[in-house]
Amino acid sequence: MTKFIFISSLILIAFGLSVYISDFLPIDMFNSGAEDEYIRAVQSTSFSWSEYRLHALIIGIVLFALSKFTNIFG
Known about the structure:
By secondary structure, the protein is mainly α. It has helices at residues 2-22, 53-73.
């Protein structure tokens, strides 16, 4: 069970960090444009996984700490 929690925490931390890092990249990084755009306009009615980046990062850190904490007492 602790291996599952540990792997889940690593996946959530990697997802949260990758979404945060992708916000710092230009939108059309590989297309040669005159200006770099860093913020993409998204309609408020659409679903986006980037809305849950903080949740995934926090839950991943908590699960990581939980997996290490249970190893101490296990």
